[in-house]
Specification:
This protein is α+β, with helices and mostly antiparallel strands. Helices cover 20% and strands 25% of the residues. The strands form two sheets. It has a three-stranded antiparallel β-sheet with strand order 1-4-5, with helices on one face. The protein is globular.
Length: 69
Amino acid sequence: MKVKVDRELCSGVSNCVAIAPTVFKLDDQNKAVVLDPGSVDEETLIEAAESCPENAIIVEDDEGNQLYP
């Protein structure tokens, strides 16, 4: 799984951090950054992505196919 954050869209709500704190954290600009996407299962990654009100989290499978959004 690959996870990216569109920093232009991220508004720092931090729902992703609450759901998957081993995967996401907020940096000094209050934007989400990806830490370790392999630390949680696919279901948790998708849940964290879906929780983003800005759809700033992009989840792809290992072949590069976009799973969310």
